[in-house]
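Readers of this paper often ask what the protein records in our data store actually look like. Such a record has a labelled line for the sequence and another for the backbone structure tokens. The tokens are whole numbers drawn from a learned vocabulary of local backbone shapes. We quote a single record here, exactly as it is kept in our systems:
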Amino acid sequence: MDTKLGIVIVGAGGRMGKRLVARVMEAADMELVGATEYSGSPLLGKDAGLVAGVGEAGVEISAELAPCLERADAIIDFSTGDVAANAEAAVAAGAAVVIGATAIDDAGKKTIAALADNGGRIVMAPNMSVGVNLLFHLVAEVAQTLGDDYDVEIVETHHNKKKDAPSGTAVRLAEVAAEALGRSYEKDVVHGREGLVGERTRREIGVHAVRGGDVVGDHVVLFAGDGERVELVHKASSRDTFALGALKAARFLSNAAPGLYDMMDVLGLRR
């Protein structure tokens, strides 16, 4: 690549935002050209690199996305703000969009899909980790192989600051299992259990959220049959795994046709 990809980090002062800033600054083929935070953030006006603890970047954190897009090839958004509006602004400016945020409502998802249908280049994934996306692939394979004779339960554990539950990754794992087994997420997924709920039905897929400490992200998919259990486990020990995946997504979009992609496309794991 002759020129560096200009990257804007949305939510640059958050846990993920800081690691994204750091990784972009380390990447030989990328340049940090913008960084944003919410209006009223005490980090506004501060150097994004210094906030991330990796040295001066020469990029001040701004409350406005539009000025940051002048030199942007892509934005990376793991924020809890209006992700769909950010994507609209980026696509209008000709920039690609990488979305790792998970708390997006149905209206936002429809807006993002429409942007992709109308020329936007977007990667949206609940988890950017290479290992987690391999886990999605394996869950589908195992579910198809074991079939209805094994009960499926998903347990996710995250730090005590996480705002949404279950995690977007757990939701996607349940969707993958449901699709592989010919079931419906809406009808067959059970979120936790309490009280006298009766015997577990054969079709249900349990999803359980645990919160505590500084856990970056653990996911366990349990296939329990008569006499044996199969467990697929992924444990993230650093947010850098998500940051590096997001950078892979931005590189992928630099040569991609317009459309809505996920990490299975980025990693070549599409079934």
